[in-house]
Amino acid sequence: MSELKLIFAGPVGAGKTTAINVLSDKPSLNTDAAVSDVTAARKATTTVAMDYGSLALSDSQKVHLYGTPGQMRFRFMWDLLANDLAADCAGLVLLIDNTRASPYRDLKYYVQEFSNLIARKKLIVGVTRSDLRSEPKLAEYEGWIEELGLQAEVRFIDARSKVDLVKLLQDFVGEEAQADWQQLLDDAEQAPERSVADSPAPESPVSDYLGENIVMKDSIVDDVLNIKGVQGAALATDMGDIVTSSLDDTELDDFIGFMAGIVPVFEQVSDLGRVRSVVLKSERNDNVSVYVEEEQVLGVVSSNRASVRILRQQLDDLLQWG
Ligand SMILES: Nc1nc2c(ncn2[C@@H]2O[C@H](COP(=O)(O)OP(=O)(O)OP(=O)(O)O)[C@@H](O)[C@H]2O)c(=O)[nH]1
Ligand SMILES: [Mg+2]
């Protein structure tokens, strides 16, 4: 029996777990846990380690399917799968959710994270949930893929549809596979629609489409306050004007506004390239972290007992999934 391996990656809620459940002959192994963090607005459960399933392509060949967790805090699993467990895979299936705020940023982010694998292996991009929002269009994705210097096919699929998934496999690994595709497609047509753990998950909302930029909404201040160890936050424009603040310390507000102006100057005079955050760590008092996005700056005051690295990761998750 010969074997093929495929890795499924992509953002939270793109449908990696769903796709592996739908494709797998035997019940797939999922490590989903209830969501207790910023992802909760979009989904009830999220993958915390990995998904695994397998599908017999014929009597002589089997394809192993490995799904990665979408959340950044579990990105060590991405490396483990790409460099170790499934380093000898035939290729990467990147699923992108068309209803998220910036599918372009998602695409760019995951392509970068898996660049070592993509340099050695084939890539195919499946865009899900286009029934809920049709923008961006396929032609836009094709443009982005070219811009990112990739050679990959992109198509709209529904991760709940076995037919869509079998067709994707056929076009992706058809050449190296020994499969009776017609038989597989006929079987897929008979297959009942399945979702995560066979139970319908709540539909995640369609975000405002932001193109290539992340725009922090005023509500980011309230969202950040939900992160453990955070004591206060303020959002400022790149001109240093405070938009919203939970801090009752105007000097701190002024300082965060001041950093909005300082960071671009610092970038220009140093060789550091793009600076995304500045952290002032205190031995005795709270830490102040300043995060710089396009045209906006977020200042966060946190307990010096909270890890700055974890705070950064949770904020990244918030910006990415929010
Ligand atoms: N309407 C619609 N729903 C879809 C489509 N594809 C997948 N879904 C749904 O979107 C959700 C995807 O959830 P998961 O499969 O858990 O996503 P995931 O990529 O594993 O997410 P993480 O494990 O959190 O990274 C499920 O509720 C699917 O039923 C689609 O094309 N259209
Ligand atoms: Mg999952």
Automatic annotation (TrEMBL):
Region (Disordered): 189-208
Molecular function (Gene Ontology), one example: hydrolase activity
InterPro entries (alphabetical): Gliding_Motility_GTPase, Gpn, P-loop_NTPase
Sequence intervals crossing the membrane: none
A Pfam family recorded for this sequence: ATP_bind_1
Keyword vocabulary terms for this entry: GTP-binding, Hydrolase, Nucleotide-binding
CDD domains assigned to the protein according to its UniProt record, in alphabetical order: Ras_like_GTPase
SUPFAM superfamilies assigned to the protein according to its UniProt record, in alphabetical order: P-loop containing nucleoside triphosphate hydrolases
Recorded family membership: Belongs to the GPN-loop GTPase family.
Protein's name in the database: ATP/GTP-binding protein
